[in-house]
Design a protein that fits this description.
The protein is an alpha/beta fold. It is 26% helix and 28% strand. The strands form two sheets. Strands 1, 2, 3, 4, 5, 9, 10, 11 and 12 form a nine-stranded mixed beta sheet that branches. Helix 2 links the parallel strand 2 and strand 3. Helix 5 crosses helix 6. The longest helix has 16 residues. The radius of gyration is 18 Å and the shape is globular. The relative contact order is 0.18.
Amino acid sequence: MQKIYDDAGKALDGLLRDGMFIAAGGFGLCGIPELLLQAIKEAGTKDLTFASNNAGVDDFGIGILLQTKQVKKMISSYVGENKEFMNQFLGGELELEFNPQGTLAERMRAGGSGIPGFYTKTGVGTQIAEGKEHKEFDGETYILERGIVADLAIVKAWKADDTGNLIFHKTARNFNPAAAMCGKVCVAEVEEIVPRGSLDPDQIHLPGIYVHRLIQGTHEKRIEQRTTRTKEEAS
């Protein structure tokens, strides 16, 4: 199967639809699939639900989709540093499902592993536990959390081969492997695509079986995109 596409728009062709559920990698401003997010913005796909650790900032990451009001709901663990997010949430325009950070990561990993749910102590006795099944194990109370299975996963990696095997760069690894696993279809934006067989199998963080499409997003492409976006906003 040919997995490599020329650009983000082509890689997402036929995958986007209004009202879909997207899992996105990234933590803060690190490991963000920015070319893919820009392509979603340009496609105008709306009423989106995102599972992501955070929503970027006002003009970066998922924040660019909040600006155009393409996001209906966020499933996140941290939503600070984003005024547009705050304004839409307080104004009743944006739904928010808070998750403890480890719970969100495990929900993604579980969904990608075919596990429909798991019990955790995190959140017991708080608003997080409201409406969720409680169960005791060895005298301790746990709550049931559901695994996440998204329509689409978008992630950012450092290196890939043409089969989709991925290596992430240091902290950019963050939520990206778990997000990639839980998507019915995963599109990966990578810095470099190398020949098959050139990656050390022991260094691969995510096997290509989880990755369906690839684009090479160089540093120069990202700088060009940001410059274009800044000019558009200034005009």
